[in-house]
Structures are given as C-alpha cells and as structure tokens.
Write a structure and sequence with these properties.
heterodimer; A: mainly alpha; Serine Threonine Protein Phosphatase 5, Tetratricopeptide repeat; 6 helices; about 80% helix; elongated; B: alpha/beta; Rossmann fold; seven-stranded mixed sheet; 7 helices; G protein activity (chain B); Small_GTP-bd (chain B); acetylation (chain B); GTP binding (chain B); P-loop_NTPase (chain B)
C-alpha cells in the first residue's frame, strides 16, 4: 500500500458495489453514482480484467455525464490505465485533465508517479539486458577456462 | 528531505476526514511539504501522502490517506477507514455547519475503525479570527466529552499542523508500548518493520529509497 497506484480494493467492497450496480442493471436503470462507485472499485482491483472493465465503465460515464463528474472520470481513467501499464494512455488522460485544471496538485502528483513507474520499468529493462551480458560473459569465461584446462 | 536511505521501524496508517472545504488536503500538504497550497481544488476520491517522523528515537513512516469531502465520494471513501491507526477529523472554525457535522463523522469513524484508533480533532483556519464561527471552548468540550485529542490549527500559517500529526503518532506509539495495540491484528493500522538482516530489510530500504526521492 505505497500509493494510489498500488493500493488494492478489498473483495468485500468490490462485491458490495458490484451488487448495487448489477441490481440496477437488472432493473434497466443504472445511476451514474452506482456506475462510478463500482468502476472506482474495479480500477483498484488486483486483476487486470477487472481494471479493464472499470475503464470501460468510466469511458461510458465520461461520454454520458455532465461536466461535474468529468474530472473524476478522467482521474480514475488515468489510474486504471497506469495500473495495467498502459502508461501513454494514462498520461493522455492526465494531460487532458491538466489542460482544464493546470495547477491541480493531486493530478500533478499522479503524473509524477506514472513517470516514475515508466522510468523504473525502463531501468529494469536495462538491468535485465545487463544481466544477460553478464551471463553470456560468464559462459564465455567458463568456455575459456574449460579450453584452458583441456590444453594443459 | 535529506538524501540517503531511510530506515523506519513502524508504518502508521492515518486517514483525514471531514466536510468538504475544511482544508484537509491543505493540512496534509503543509505537513508533507511545509507549504501552504492556495486555491486548493476539491480532492478526487482519495489522495495519498507520506512522511517519516521521529517518535522517542524511533523512525516512523506515516502513510496518510486524505479523503475527498464531497458527498458523492462518501460511500467508497468509507473503505479507507479500515485499518487506520490514526484519524484526523477536521472542521473549519469559520463555518459552523462543518462543526455541526462532526458527530456523524465521529460515528462513522467509531464504526469503521477499531477501539485503539487515535482520533484527533482539528479546528482548521484558526488564522481567520475575524470570521470565527465556532469557539475554542465549545470544541474543546466536544473533544473532551468524546475522548478526542484536539487543537486549533492553520494550514495557511502552519500553526499546530506538525503538532497534530506528531501528537497522534506519539499516542499510537504509546499504545504499542503499553501493549494496548495488538500489532498482530490485521486492522491495527500499524506495521512493524524490524531492522533485521535479510530480504525484508532490503525491501524496506528500497521502499525507503523511493520515498527519499524529491517529489
């Protein structure tokens, strides 16, 4: 539970808000509130299938709702996409938000978090490549040692 | 923040709650950045902040969840109360309605946290004396009657902000020392990070490194 990109919804909460949403869906009238609350839980799930579902629900809300909720949907669209490592999409939503509210610290903070993730995963890539070089180096070394052993 | 890896022995989880516009995010910002955030927009859902503090020579990492005050977030933000070791309950000294709602915030907190959770009442915006709408005495009485710690503070000037966060941590730490807070309980809101050699320590160092980055 380090930050907003790691924190995971409890399964009880997810079930609770899923129930409300499904009940309304069954009756044929889903309120924006129920859809948003369910989507907010979904994008905090540890399963990417849930997160993707949450993103679809938020996209739907963004299309249909008035101005008041739009900033909420953009924010959670950014979080959802970042959590499934769709970083460029996540940054797209962050930038769309910051065009409307340039000074928003919460969203600037999220942007920093996303960029740090990207950087960290880029570095991991380099570290893995470095590891491979070391492993190959080791094999060559071993080969040389074996050859040397044989010749002596 | 100074450079270099941090080591901490405990993690305390905090939540900040209260009506919209009372200055919850500004208090957090003042505490973590030592700056006043003017024109603070409404928080979306929850925001998160951390700071490492020192209590009785122990390094403690505070993980602070700052909840949105707007009603439409209420249902989901309730799930952040679970497992909080400290709850900062904020009202605005210049708006009586925010004070009148405290009992409902307190009920929520009591229902959703555990008996050892430290609840600290903060009357924010005490720098705006001319606009005062709630007296210190009545708020103090409310706090005493309900067994809450209490200060009036100002996120703008920084007055008592540090104190509120630190006093809460001291009280939690005291509960651990007295054995009143069970560290093994899943929802105590406290994690012990013993500084032992091996994998765990390494993990902590990595986390601590991450936190020491300027952000």
């Amino acid at each position: 539970m380090e930050d907003v990109l790691d924190e995971v919804v409890s399964s009880d909460d997810l079930k609770k808000f899923e129930q409300v949403y499904n009940d309304q869906l069954y009756k044929g009238e889903v309120t924006h509130k129920a859809q948003f609350e369910y989507a907010w839980c979904l994008v905090r799930s540890k399963y990417s299938a849930d997160i993707r579902k949450g993103i679809i629900l938020l996209e739907g809300l963004f299309q249909s709702d008035n101005a008041e909720g739009k900033r909420d949907y953009l924010y959670y669209l950014a979080i959802g996409n970042a959590r499934i490592k769709e970083y460029s999409k996540a940054l797209h939503y962050v930038r769309a938000f910051l065009q409307i509210e340039p000074g928003n610290q919460q969203v600037q903070h999220l942007e920093t978090l996303i960029k740090k993730r990207m950087e960290k995963e880029g570095l991991i890539g380099i570290a893995m490549a470095g590891g491979a070089v070391l492993a190959i180096g080791g094999l060559v070394g071993l080969g040389l040692a074996l050859a040397k052993g044989r010749s002596s | 923040m100074s450079a270099g890896p941090y080591n901490y022995s405990y993690i305390f989880k905090y939540i900040i709650i209260g009506d919209m516009g009372v200055g919850k995010s500004c208090l957090l910002h003042q505490f973590t950045e030592k700056k006043f955030m003017a024109d603070c927009p409404h928080t979306i859902g929850v925001e998160f902040g951390t700071r490492i503090i020192d209590v009785s020579g122990q390094k403690i990492k505070l993980q602070i969840w700052d909840t949105a005050g707007q009603e439409r977030f209420r249902a989901v933000t309730r799930s952040y109360y679970r497992g909080a070791a400290g709850a900062l309950m904020v009202y605005d000294t210049t708006r009586r309605s925010t004070y009148n709602h405290l009992s409902s915030w307190l009920t929520d907190t009591r229902n959703l946290t555990n008996p050892s959770t430290v609840i600290f009442l903060i009357g924010n915006k005490c720098d705006l004396e001319a606009q005062r709408d709630v007296t210190y005495e009545e708020a103090k009485q409310f706090a005493d009657e309900n067994g809450l710690m209490f200060v009036e503070a100002s996120a703008r000037t920084g007055e008592n902000v540090e104190e509120a966060f630190l006093e809460t941590a001291k009280k939690i730490y005291q509960s651990i020392q007295d054995g009143r807070l069970d560290l093994n309980a899943a929802e105590s809101g406290v994690q012990h990070k013993p500084a032992q050699p091996g994998r765990n320590t390494q993990l902590n160092d990595q986390q601590a490194n991450k936190d020491s980055c300027a952000c």
